[in-house]
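**User:**
Everyone, produce one record:

**Assistant:**
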Amino acid sequence: MARKLSEEIKIDPSAIHQNFKELSIKLFCCRYWILEEWECDDLKVPFWRIYHNSVGDSTIRFKNSTIPLNNENILIIPPNTSFSSQLKRNFNFQDESIIGRKFIETDDLATLAAHGKADHFFTHFSLGYPLDFVTNTIYVIKPDETIGHLLKEIKRACVTDLVTNMKESLRVKQLIAACLLNLPDEIWDSGNIDHRILKSIKFIEGNFRRKITNEQLADTANMAVNSFARLFKMSTKITTQQYILKSRVEAGCHLMHHSNKSLDEISYECGFSDRHHFSKIFKKTMKVNPSDYKKLLKMVNGISE
């Protein structure tokens, strides 16, 4: 009898199949800065961003709107959304400038505000396909008690350099999920994603460091090359090779944020033929040279060259 009962036990007793949406939050960085200048034009990048400032007069310009960054607002910015930033009141965007440093324990918000500076919390992340291809816009939400508590704890972890440990990494992902839950449901409605495109993207994500041809990708999808290329672009709004380059640039950003590797080493590890090619694609995508991007990271973390 005992054997018969054990044979009838099922892992999931329900006969209804549940097809959950895949969600993988890939963190690139999470930082807390002090800004003296933040005058930038066209801050379009291929990953998501969350911004929150407590003090200061910084603003975001998106299309015909000016959005304040203050304690009452959290900004959620999808990939490839073009916008500009401003901290000074009188500014010519022909002279872009970022001046700032890491927020440290002795800094005081009231003192910053009195000197015309702003604190600036941000995190960069990706959600993968198709969630990285939502409409280009900027969402403004009001922090509730849960989000407010998460922000407070994560900012403290950034200040004390503990934000990359397991507990704080989970907290950052919890903040991202809490913010995304405030977005309108319709932005996630991507319809029925063709399983062949999903399969090819998973292949890219695992192999983008080496040369990938359309023939290889079409083979993974069991399709003719031309038919596959059309379906891929229709589904993602970019070509296969553009998607591969996007993946390589994201990997380069991740290495610059989380390693001390040289640009030559990063170029090689991300699948570029040389540093010149990496710099060309990086600048086209990020609107800044990788050497300048790396210097900025050192500056805001208080590390001198």
